[in-house]
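Action item from last week, closing it out:
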Amino acid sequence: MIVLFMVFILLGLTLGVGMMLAPALPTSHPRVAVAGVLCLALVMSGSLFHAGLFGWDILLVDYLWFALITGVFLGGTLTVGMRRVEAAIAEGKDAHLGWPSLLTMSVFGGWGLITLLILSSQSSPQQLLEGFSTLHRHINAFQHNANLSSLNTRIDALGPGLPTILAYFDAQLPIDVAVGLVGWIVSLQVIWLWLAYDIGSELELKTQYLWAWIGLAALIGILCINKPIILTELVLAGGFCFFVWHWMNHNAWFDFVAAAVCAAATILVFPLVATGLLVIYCALMLLRGSHNFKINLLGAIGIVSLTILGISPWLVSLI
């Protein structure tokens, strides 16, 4: 029950803000998981950016969540959503405007329960945490208001991103850190599957191909069920890929900034792997056959520069 409480809180924050923000995204339909991943990346990278400049406090994460919820609500995103629905009705389109059906959301919820059952049958939460000693050490450090330089993180090891979020939930909720890790895995599995649905829907895949795509995502999720660091990396990298693809096809500046935010959070989770992916991305952008070389160059240099700016306080702490 405690794990379910953690899952409820995490999904409520991430997907709750995502549901409010999704109607305002420059996508064909509201993409809840994409918006939720962006919010998660913003909280993770934003709290560490502030921590690198002014010092760490566990309440930083609280302030950022509150600022996001308030900003999204007061920003009129729900009004934007209502206007899109009204326009769709006027054009004779389906009024649900791309929101997942009840069946689809039931699949996401069922997948979360399956993940929880698998984790419960494999080992105790404490045994799962014992396999990630560095993660545990960083979580403890954040709970005692350590600064970034005291973590002794390296470019080829675990970054401070995941410990930041887990330390926050461990401090704010009446749960053990090991139970929190299980709740994190279950929550990310749901978000990962929903993200796959959003990406497939935005690509306008036919129904059978969409469910095959979701099935592939579920298979990848199963392979990463005991690998919370890789799973976190996958979710954030998925958000990055979505925004990059959408920016290349629609040239919306929101996508440009959102891609950089997701890239920064991805690097902060596991720096070496994420940096390698970013290098591959730059090469693909520069080699991409397109009539608009400026867009390719801006995508390769601009997004990377903005990403480096976002993680610069952490990079300074490595010196």
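Closing note: The mean pLDDT is 81.
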